[in-house]
Batch of 4 targets.
Target 1
Amino acid sequence: NAGVTQTPKFRVLKTGQSMTLLCAQDMNHEYMYWYRQDPGMGLRLIHYSVGEGTTAKGEVPDGYNVSRLKKQNFLLGLESAAPSQTSVYFCASSYGRGGFTDTQYFGPGTRLTVL
Amino acid sequence: RKEVEQDPGPFNVPEGATVAFNCTYSNSASQSFFWYRQDCRKEPKLLMSVYSSGNEDGRFTAQLNRASQYISLLIRDSKLSDSATYLCVVNNPSNTGKLIFGQGTTLQVKP
């Protein structure tokens, strides 16, 4: 089992460019999440999905879009990158059935720099 | 008030020391509690779930006090490899599947 994988690992963009971050999980989890982590801010939820074909906003969704066309994949898109989106992005997944099945498993992260 | 509060540290301790981290949470309806560990420039990883009766995993002991809405993590006989940030995590009772992460407590174990 690979668990949760993310591509790419690193990326540098110029302001205004677009990109898509890909997350894949092989644990048959229903729930998937995208977080960003900035120094001193902790993990902040961008968007999440409770199942194939569904998406929902987290606490910092502006400037991002997501899609969950397949259960195992969750894509995060930046349509027009801004320097404020420089961050480390983590994808996570869980069974999401309540209790300790809410344990989230994280991918290795994508380090994004927007110049 | 933050939903999950932790002392950010850093805690600097010598090898072999015992160190305790505390965490408070604001929503009394929360039911699931976890400690995650995050190494520098790495992803958070589950260290242990926290059960109502408390639980132990080797040198690590987690305790839950529902009345005070307080969670603790005790590390005995600290190793250099324990140096990391420890995240206190609580479920969001209003939304199944969502977790609330504390900002973390940094531990540095010195030789």
Target 2
Amino acid sequence: AQSVSQHNHHVILSEAASLELGCNYSYGGTVNLFWYVQYPGQHLQLLLKYFSGDPLVKGIKGFEAEFIKSKFSFNLRKPSVQWSDTAEYFCAVSSSGTYKYIFGTGTRLKVLA
Amino acid sequence: GAVVSQHPSRVICKSGTSVKIECRSLDFQATTMFWYRQFPKQSLMLMATSNEGSKATYEQGVEKDKFLINHASLTLSTLTVTSAHPEDSSFYICSAYGGNQNEQFFGPGTRLTVL
């Protein structure tokens, strides 16, 4: 069965620190990969997605993610976080053609001003 | 991006009553809609997948008689929580997928509180 793991459940950083959130999945076929952000009290917003092509994907708000197929990973990065990045981040995976998502457990990021 | 709305955004009801939540795709036709449940500080758990004009497909462990899903048109799906109990209190989120879009678009969610 497909599964998605986000190993960092809670992350606390100071402003300007670099961020990397891990996401690993288990699935043998072709996948589509997503990172979503959920700000407090708000709905899910898409940060970035990967379907094919360049494994380094750039998203909104300065985020990027790298798909490493051999490691079944799709880690999210940002070189310098801001207080406004405080939110919960979800990795999601779907097998190509189904669009049914499996979500990771989420990572709660707190950025200290 | 495509817009998905949900109504109501919050609902408080008494135990034993039924609650209907609407999910609409505002600017595209959604062939498939998904319903999720999110408990506090937890991830989204897929409850069911609904395709326009056909019966919903429920995930394992989700009671189809308790969570009635209707997808009568390409822009509207409804989730009815029947005979709600306090343990049904949660955040319910829908998403929509349309043929020209290759991702799901999420609604803002509905917070259900059952007293």
Target 3
Amino acid sequence: DIQMTQSPSSVSASVGDRVTITCRASQGVRNSLAWHQQKPGKAPRLLIFSASRLQSGVPSRFSGSGSETDFTLTISSLQPEDFATYYCQQSATVPITFGQGTRLEIK
Amino acid sequence: EVQLVESGGGLVQPGGSLKLSCAASGFTFSDSAIHWVRQASGKGLEWVGRITEKIHNYGTAFGASVKGRFIMSRDDSKNMAYLQMSSLETEDTAVYFCARAIPGTTFVEYWGQGTLVTVSS
């Protein structure tokens, strides 16, 4: 199975900050990488797929990059509604696997 | 509007069985693979499995922790997907989400709100 490792596990930031979350795959996944956002008690929401494609309706302050084993999710200017947990997910091979999550907290 | 609504969760004893349903609307159900993902309380997301579209022969794949115990099916005429769970263990306690994939891809796109399964004596 492909292991997905996110860093950091948690991060504190302020409104307006730029934040970057990284995701590393244990083997190459090409660009088969997605990012999801989850708020407490809610279902996840797809933000980015194919490593860098913005899902419809997602604000442009979210961006993704990377390929094969190293990926990043960047939020260019944090908004209050962005405080949540973020998960990467590889879809290159089954079983599909998720990272352990990165909790983004208000500083 | 795309909607996925899970049902069928509840309390079940270890070793028991339960069948979850996922009702879909707002999109061409037969064109999308359906995934099941679960989340134990306070934990991360764990992929349970997926069933593909008819064009890909309704193929199924499962995560290691449920393989051999869970079965997925779908009824395209009713826009429904199902997760039959058997030999349930306490570790299967979680919120179970169904989700549709972006057509033609394996990317999970729209998620339901989830249904809670509790395995306890």
Target 4
Amino acid sequence: KAGVTQTPRYLIKTRGQQVTLSCSPISGHRSVSWYQQTPGQGLQFLFEYFSETQRNKGNFPGRFSGRQFSNSRSEMNVSTLELGDSALYLCASSLGDRVAYEQYFGPGTRLTVT
Amino acid sequence: QKEVEQDPGPLSVPEGAIVSLNCTYSNSAFQYFMWYRQYSRKGPELLMYTYSSGNKEDGRFTAQVDKSSKYISLFIRDSQPSDSATYLCAMIRGFQKLVFGTGTRLLVSP
């Protein structure tokens, strides 16, 4: 069974631009969660989508948004990029129909904002 | 104060040593406790999960949860250089979000 895939793996953007990241979950998984990982803050939860609906949301500004498609693939968007948005963005998938203690992570997208 | 506290390390041990990694937490509502391993430039990989208090063993790894003390541990026996990675604890309650510790960097020298 294929794992979680994320594209692109690396991105360089400039301040003020926007970016869209993509995540394809493990086949059969209906929940996708997004995380931001930085050396100082560790892994911070952005949001979770289950069956095309946002089920949980972290404490990030509205510039961070996401969506999920009917095939469970998910995208997250960051508008008006700031230098502090430079991070590794990880998505994780799980079955979603029970407590998500078994989340499987993709390799991440490393975003650099200059 | 963070919900989950974890010493960032690095923790350096010789090959063959027993490693103890720990996390403390403040929210007694957490039900499931997980340990993830993350190699450099990779996503976290789920190692083990435990429900409520008790021990769980998987090969060289043992996870321990003490809910009365709000303290969880991961023990690695006969540590190998390939165990060198960052270890993240995580916990969850109900259908809420996973809450992670900041991770402990482990270095196992040959």
